[in-house]
Amino acid sequence: MKLKLALAALTLSLQFSTAQAHSVWLEPSSTVLSKAAYITVAGAAGNDKFHYNHAALRGLNENFTAIAPDGSTVAPENLMAGKLRTVFDLNLTQSGTYRLAVASEGIMASWKEGEQTKRFRGNAEAFAKDVPANATDLRVNEGVNRLETFVTVGKPTDIKPIGKGLELVPITHPNDLFAGETATFRFVVDGKPAAGLEVLIMRGGSRYRNQLEEIKLTTDAEGKFSIKWPEAGMYWLDADAQDDKTTVPQARERRLSYVATFEVLPQ
């Protein structure tokens, strides 16, 4: 079963869980603008992509970053966390492509103290301080997670790789997608090609059709995959991986997750 981003206590800790498999997403009001303008972004979790009927995405104050074309950051305005969605505005004043991302990394641990089960969530520094070195039945997992979308004002500009965790490196620009055309992307882990990675893509609006219409793809030896967009709409993309490149020796594995939203326009 593919690992999913979980909403622990409906906060954006972005920890993993196979038991809680609601999808998460960011949905911008526009992904392509002809001139500088405001957009509104909504974040939520649910089973029907881009249908707001389960829970809001919380904790954006700590985890959200909007990177402008010149590398500076844009602060969210009018942030409001409701029951079913979190919304905020962004003032996009520069020409070029903006990267809107919710990213986190951390460690989860559990151990026994007598009859009690103790739990920890935090970074490596806090782990070394708060978790006993001789803890009984210690179980440790590490996660690196990224949830993002892209918005372009005027002419698209290059998107620089982050270089850490699982990330998508565009070959086709993510704001230059059209129904009936083929787009190509590359997945990398810590900057190196992610070969054999399973990629799941779904168009929004599944509650209004009888089939989910999932598109399942696999990356090649260079981490590349291509998709011919069947029709216009908002699409949700998910990929997950795991390895042993942990930052603490007690961790059994590092779990990596990537989720993105793309808008495909009509011809």
UniProtKB/TrEMBL annotation:
It comes from the Bacteria. Residues 1-21 form the signal peptide. It holds the Pfam family DUF4198. InterPro entries: DUF4198. Keywords: Signal. This is DUF4198 domain-containing protein.
